[in-house]
């Protein structure tokens, strides 16, 4: 039995992480966090190493990039990987960049509002008569 070389198009699959090496990426994690950084390494489990990584936190119309440095991501937590176009602006013009302290306060307020909404819905659940 002889082994044939794979066709040229199979070698350069666009679904491979190898095509993203040394490129700036946006990675969405299972817990909803968004990480940006340059992909430096990966393995067969899609574990990845980002250089110059930062976490982008967005609350309403404000955002903040929190620097993380060299960051290792476990592959099972990755939902989406996308290459960033360096020619285009990363953030829409209506978004405002704020310091980390302000984004933390905004996150806390958003979380409290969400918790309050959930508790009010639970209290009024008895009114739902199908």
From TrEMBL:
Provide a Gene Ontology MF annotation, just one: mRNA binding
Extract the ranges annotated as region (Disordered): 92-117
Matching Gene3D superfamilies, A to Z?
A: 2.30.30.100
GO BP term, example: hyperosmotic salinity response
Q: Name one GO cellular component term.
A: ribonucleoprotein complex
Q: By its UniProt entry, which PANTHER family does this protein fall under?
A: LSM1, U6 SNRNA-ASSOCIATED SM-LIKE PROTEIN LSM1
**What family does the database annotate?**
Belongs to the snRNP Sm proteins family.
Protein name, entry field: U6 snRNA-associated Sm-like protein LSm1
Q: Which organism is it from?
A: Daucus carota subsp. sativus
The keyword 4Fe-4S is assigned to this record: no
């Amino acid at each position: 039995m002889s082994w044939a070389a794979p066709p040229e198009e199979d070698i350069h699959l666009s679904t491979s992480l190898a095509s993203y090496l040394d490129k700036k990426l946006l990675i969405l994690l299972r817990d909803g966090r968004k990480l940006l950084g340059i992909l430096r390494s990966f393995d067969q489990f899609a574990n990845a190493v980002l250089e110059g990584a930062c976490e982008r936190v967005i609350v309403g119309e404000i955002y903040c990039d929190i620097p993380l440095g060299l960051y290792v991501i476990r592959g099972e937590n990755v939902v989406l990987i996308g290459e960033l176009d360096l020619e285009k602006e990363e953030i829409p013009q209506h978004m405002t960049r704020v310091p980390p302290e302000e984004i933390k306060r905004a996150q806390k307020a958003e979380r409290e509002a969400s918790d309050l909404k959930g508790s009010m819905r639970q209290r009024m659940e008895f009114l739902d008569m199908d």
